[in-house]
Amino acid sequence: MLTKSDFQKHIQCVKYLWLYKNRKDLLPSEVDPNLQRIFDDGCEVESYAYKLFPGGVDFAQIFE
User: Fold this and answer.
1) How confident is the model at residue 12 (pLDDT cuts 50, 70, 90)?
2) Domain residue spans in the chain?
3) DSSP H or E segment with residue 49
4) pLDDT digits over 15-56, tens only?
5) By C-alpha distance, which of 31, 41, 32 is closest to 8?
6) Which strand (E) or helix (H) includes residue 20?
């Protein structure tokens, strides 16, 4: 399954997404500030989406 966070990883770097899905042991344990900002932006977008569509369906919960 491809999540919103996975898609953001893909946009950042296709190889990073592959490593994240298949070889997490090769990824650095620290998140650099730029990557953290991307994660934070994604959470902010998600928060706005919940406000804009309060009766919407959260597909993440459906596919877990």
Assistant:
1) confident
2) 4-54
3) helix 33-52
4) 888 888 899 899 877 778 898 898 889 889 888 988 999 988
5) 41
6) helix 14-22
